[in-house]
TrEMBL record:
Every MacB-like periplasmic core domain range: 24-235
Domain ABC3 transporter permease C-terminal span(s) in chain numbering: 267-400
Main localization category: membrane
Provenance organism: Pannonibacter tanglangensis
Family classification: Belongs to the ABC-4 integral membrane protein family. LolC/E subfamily.
Compartments, as annotated in UniProt: Cell membrane
One Pfam short name: FtsX
Entry protein name: Lipoprotein-releasing ABC transporter permease subunit
Leader sequence residues: none
Tagged with keyword Transport: yes
Biological process annotations from GO: lipoprotein localization to outer membrane; lipoprotein transport
Stretches assigned to coiled coil: none
KW Repeat (keyword) present: no
Ranges that cross the membrane: 15-41, 264-288, 308-332, 374-393
Length: 407
């Protein structure tokens, strides 16, 4: 009851109440910012990981010493390994693609139609055309961004140019061939939508002068986080000398940078909560100074030092608890509507707030992690509680005689 009265604003204590209000707002904004930033960082990692692994596979089996001519047999053996969901042979090469609106460098991949349909990121996101009859159509499936930049629609011809052409007395001449666009997909990651094109495996083998050979076999497992456990079985299941690498090795630098950025952002934003907690210390210290006579009267009426200390601990902790809960609710609302908020701010400022060419993704993701959110809330509550201890201890140590000497 006493702590509640100290929290309520009165004319004489208005300045102290203003400090308490700033402390509340600071903790609320600090917690909300931490929750939102951590959710967005988790969303980035999850979306990027899902996009990268949806196209590149969890493990890559490449030949050693001898070309991969028995790719169908290797894929069949790998398909039978425990934990392996799919094993897809492919041919890969870099080429220049050309359309009515310009030219682009592209990564061309050759896959069987059945294997291409096993990639849900591609098969489930066809915007124009179809993958049915892909093996016999002799065309290309390209991303929406590539189609826009080259000015292509389904049915238009796209010219593919490879530097590995025919050898003539005048040197090597680039190989050029025109293909119809049979399908346009949208993965949602600008890097892939603008640079990857799919063609049939036999056609890719002929175009890149890899007759009867494959670049490698991509292996998809039931749990990408357990690729280390499957690696030995995959190496054995290949049945031939092969080099096996997983997605963590191929993308180590990228995901390590994301992890470092995430940890640094957490430490920096924690300072916001710490500053708000220091406001609680200053506000309670001024409250103790102002309430010295009240504390002395309570002590002379029989209140113990522990009772006085509890009054001020409850006063400061109330600010921390209410501010933390309000910050969590604010962060939750923002995370659930992050894309709508982004679009509104972009409309309001007439700027592109989240450029997909810079951030790879076409939408802003947010994914709240239960453990991280609880850690943020506990940290804010602990800092708020610790901030109350010194002013409360000073109040409990106040001598009633000294406080009432000049009253």
């Amino acid at each position: 009851m006493i702590a509640g009265r100290y929290l309520r604003s009165r004319r004489r204590d208005s300045f102290i109440s203003v400090i308490a209000g700033f402390s509340f707002v600071g903790i609320m904004l600090g917690v909300a910012t931490l929750v939102i930033v951590m959710a967005v960082m988790n969303g980035f990692r999850s979306e990027l990981l899902g996009k990268i692994l949806g196209i590149n596979g969890h493990m890559l089996v490449q030949p050693i010493d001898q070309p991969l001519t028995d790719y169908d047999a290797v894929a069949s053996r790998l398909q039978g390994v425990s934990g392996v969901v799919a094993a897809i042979p492919f041919v890969e090469g870099q080429a220049l693609v050309s359309g009515p609106a310009g030219n682009l460098g592209a990564l061309v991949r050759g896959l069987y139609e059945a294997d291409l349909k096993r990639l849900p990121l591609v098969a489930g996101n066809i915007r124009q055309g179809t993958l049915d009859g892909f093996d016999t159509a002799g065309g290309l499936a390209i991303g929406t961004r590539m189609a826009q930049q080259l000015g292509l629609q389904v049915g238009d011809n796209i010219t593919v140019i490879s530097p590995r052409g025919a050898v003539t007395p005048m040197g090597v001449t680039p190989r050029t061939k025109s293909y119809p666009v049979t399908a346009i997909f949208e993965i949602g990651m600008s890097e892939y939508d603008g640079t990857i094109a799919f063609m049939t495996l036999p056609e890719a083998q002929g175009f890149f002068r890899m007759d009867g050979k494959a670049t490698g076999v991509e292996v998809y497992t039931d749990d990408p986080d357990k690729v280390g456990d499957y690696k030995a079985a995959v190496e054995e299941g290949a049945g031939r000398p092969a080099f096996v690498s997983d997605w963590r090795q191929r993308n180590m630098t990228f995901f390590s940078a994301l992890e470092v950025e995430r940890n640094v952002m957490f430490l920096i934003l924690t300072l916001i909560v710490l500053v708000a907690a220091l406001n609680i210390i200053s506000g309670l210290t001024m409250l103790v100074k102002d309430k010295g006579r009240d504390i002395a009267i309570l002590r002379t009426m029989g209140a113990t030092r522990g009772s006085v200390m509890r009054v001020f601990v409850i006063t400061g902790a109330s600010i921390g608890v209410i501010g933390t809960l309000a910050g969590f609710l604010l962060g939750l609302v923002v995370c659930l509507n992050i894309e709508s908020i982004r679009q509104f701010i972009s409309w309001l400022t007439s700027t592109q707030l989240f450029d997909p060419t810079l951030y790879f993704l076409s939408r802003m993701p947010a994914e709240m992690d239960q453990g991280e959110t609880i850690m943020v809330l506990v940290m804010a509550l602990v800092l708020s509680l610790l901030a109350t201890l010194y002013p409360a201890w000073r109040a409990a140590r106040l001598d009633p005689v000294e406080a009432l000497r000049y009253e």
